[in-house]
């Protein structure tokens, strides 16, 4: 994990493996900031959706029990939303390096769409 001090806050960048392990251990809340359409088509099972267009940092849950890790498609939008959260007063936030694209490249499981039926299906 890489970390950067932004004022009095800490912005962390987690690897896919770190996110997978912490998510499996129920240590984090994983929040997808992609569009609803992207999420419906494919997403990490159990990840919550707070699209960038409607992102309200002040509505994020507290982090007393679980850390928050944001992710998007490539890591660009999630980093932008993490910085927005810091601007809103969140003192520690993380995002996943490489986003969902890196998750898929690492062959991690996710919910995709069966192109023949349009139904959701587990991949990986």
Task: Describe the 3D structure.
The chain is of the alpha/beta class and 124 residues long. It has one domain: Rhodanese-like domain (Oxidized Rhodanese, domain 1). It is built from four helices and eight strands. The longest helix is centred in the middle third of the chain and has 12 residues.
Compose a concise summary of this entry.
This protein has a single domain (2-110), classed as Oxidized Rhodanese, domain 1, CATH 3.40.250.10. 27% of the residues lie in helices and 29% in strands. It contains four helices and eight strands.
How many domains is the backbone divided into?
1
CATH class: Alpha Beta
Order of strands side by side in the largest beta sheet? 1-2-6-5-3-4
Q: Globular, elongated, flat, extended or rod-shaped: what is the shape?
A: globular
Secondary-structure element string: EEHEHEEHEHEE
Are there runs of 5+ residues with pLDDT below 50, and where?
none
Helix vs. strand class = alpha/beta
Q: How would you name the CATH homologous superfamily?
A: Rhodanese-like domain
Please report which band the strand proportion falls in: under 5%, 5-15%, 15-25%, 25-35%, 35-45% or over 45%. Answer: 25-35%
Helix content: 25-40%
